[in-house]
Amino acid sequence: MKATILLGTLKKSGLSNTETLCEFLSGRMERQGIRSEIIKLVDHRVLPGTYSDMGEGDEWPGILEKVLGSEIVILATPIWWGNQSSLIQRVIERLDELHDKVLAGESSPLEGKVGGVVITGDSDGAEHVIGNLCNFFNAVGLLIPP
Predict the structure, then answer these.
(1) What pLDDT digit, counting tens, does each position of 94-139 carry?
(2) How much of the chain is helix, strand and coil, in % rounded to 5?
(3) 19-23, 27-31, 122-126, 139-143 — which is least confidently predicted?
(4) In this structure, are residues 36 and 30 in contact, taking their beta carbons and an 8 Å threshold?
(5) Which residue, among 33, 10, 6, 35, has the nearest Cα to 22 in the 3D structure?
(6) What is the spatial distance between Cα 15 and Cα 64, in angstroms, rounded to a whole number?
(7) Which CATH class is domain 2-121?
(8) What is the pTM of this model?
(9) What is the DSSP string of 64-95?
(10) Element (H, E) at 23
(11) Spans of all domains in the chain
């Protein structure tokens, strides 16, 4: 079993709180026999847009391939001004093409995979962000365990 953690920290250098939690989670999963990979989005060129491939220089297609090859997909984000980080928002936007397939009556390539959320923050909007991300998971076919 494989998990992909999309880390939405905005800190390019140094260890962020969100990255620390992701490393902890990754270690716990590894002890359960689940291979995991943390993809620190700030280190990749993920172009804006709503398609799976936005052209030359876009690193999202390679990241998407890893996501689709995983049984578990985790979005990890700090809270910024009451919302998920801009990098996690970009992931949502880039996965919109998969949602379009669902709207067209096709199966989502994410259908039946497990979704998870890692949040750093609390009274500054964590419940709001968790709700938004879980709503998105539901729309693209990811299962949300309790």
Answers:
(1) 999 999 999 999 999 999 999 999 999 877 788 999 999 999 999 9
(2) 40, 20, 40
(3) 122-126
(4) yes
(5) 6
(6) 24
(7) alpha beta
(8) 0.95
(9) HHHHHT-SEEEEEEE-BTTB--HHHHHHHHHT
(10) helix 17-31
(11) 2-121
Q: Which positions ≥6 away from 113 have C-beta within 8 Å? A: 70, 71, 72, 73, 141, 142, 143
Eight-class DSSP state of 42: G
Give SS3 for 40: strand
Q: Tokens at residue 2, please? A: 């494989």
Assign 37 to helix, strand or coil: strand
Torsion angle in degrees (nearest 10) through CA of 90, 93, 95, 97: -150
Question: Within 10 A of 83 (CB to CB), how many other CB atoms are there?
Answer: 15
